[in-house]
Amino acid sequence: MADAIGKVLATAICGQTQFMLGANVALNSALLIQEAGPAGHLTVTQRSWAISVTFAGALLGCVLAAALAPPLGARRLLLMLMPLAAAGSVAIYCGDGAFGWTVAGRLLVNTALGAGDGQARAYVAEVAAPAQRAVLSTAVGLLLFVGQLVGLALASVWRWPLQQLACTCAPAALGALGLLLLPDTAQWLMARGRDEKLAADALAFYRGQDFDTASEIDNIRASVEEAGAPLGRTWRALCRRSALRPLLLTAGQFFFFVWTGGFFLVVVTALVVGGLPLPLDDYQRAMLVPAVALLGTPPASPLLRRAGRLPLLRASGALSAVGCATIAAGDLMGAEHAARGWLALGGALVCLLPYSTLLTAITFNYLGELLPNSVRSLAVSLVMGWFGLLVFVSLQLYEPLLGAISVGGVFLVHAAVSLLQVLYASTLLLQRLTALPSSRFSSASSTLNLRRLPSSWKR
């Protein structure tokens, strides 16, 4: 019972980063809606900069995490980032929406969240038992949608600077206090050469007093010794084949995560459902996406526990292709067709549900299981940096693409990429792979179907 409470606490505490991320996404919509009205202070160009700095901060945060996560560990780094995010929101509120204060504050907030996103997910994945990782990863992801809904609800009655203050300071304070109660992960402690008793205590805290800590410590020690160097003190360990291959596979999966349609559906929701004859205001329309995701994710959790990840990724890609093609068909129909908007909404739901319920949980869970223990902190920062760069570049290209080939054409591109996701999950991507030596694979911490590996990888 105590070990279950520990994992729930870790999920809720680390999930405050996701809550703040969700509220920050909601802030983009609130800022655009409110600043476009008569009470707005920002010009069109300034609004664009206020939103673009979100992704610049996320990239800066990934660089910060790459430097600080190996020596500090995920828990200490998150503890340091919570007051940084709160300070940024205070700057925005004190500036009362002034452009300079807005840009500086949002840069600070998003740097903190960008640095903490991957580390929070990786911490939860490391402390969870293999059978529970998918469920806990899904729970962490749910807090992002909760943050979006709460942020949009508050923005409908408050000015957006006050919404930013409330949705950042409160979860940051809760997260910081909670992190003081949690131990560092056993993987990080042993990789930094700390006393093995501390690692055993950390394992007992999350796995229970009856857990075979000695066997798990042997597995972690073997992983660290195979890397040839302590965690984060050299890049040579990351360049080893046993670490580089999982890193590249995970980076490839994040490309499909961004471009299979669901991710950008969140960004261009108004373009897809804006023409629907629904009695909803701007805030309520913006709530459609997180509400659908929040309602659809819990029923899908049993699938994550019982079905293999690769079949689920293939199913997610296939459904996403159907949904994107339906959106494209609705957009390409003439404006006189009454069913045009409803067809687009149906396609959006078909695309969004596998994205929010399957693709997100599985992709981010790979940060905790595909990446090796010995270089995980550094590798997570690199993957999240790649993710941030991919999002930044893709968003810069997205508007010109929409202007050149329309929403329908862009979603045909998403449909094609979704089919490539099916091919990727069928050929290259692995079910699960840790960095334990081949003679030390443990069924308690790794499940690897060697028949899925190309013959050249088995040697």
What is the CATH architecture descriptor? Up-down Bundle
What sequence of helices (H) and strands (E) makes up the elements? HHHHHHHHHHHHHHHH
| Average pLDDT over all residues | 79
Here the CATH topology equals Growth Hormone, Chain: A
> Uncertain segments of ≥5 residues (pLDDT<50)?
433-459
Proportion of residues in extended strands: under 5%
User: Which homologous superfamily in CATH is the superfamily?
Assistant: MFS general substrate transporter like domains
Question: How would you characterize the overall build of this protein?
Answer:
- This protein is an all-alpha fold.
- It has a single domain, classed as MFS general substrate transporter like domains (Growth Hormone, Chain: A).
- It is 78% helix and 0% strand.
- It is globular.
- The C terminus is likely disordered.
Topology:
Elements: H1 2-35, H2 44-95, H3 99-127, H4 133-155, H5 160-179, H6 186-191, H7 196-207, H8 213-227, H9 241-259, H10 262-267, H11 269-273, H12 282-306, H13 309-332, H14 340-369, H15 376-427, H16 455-458
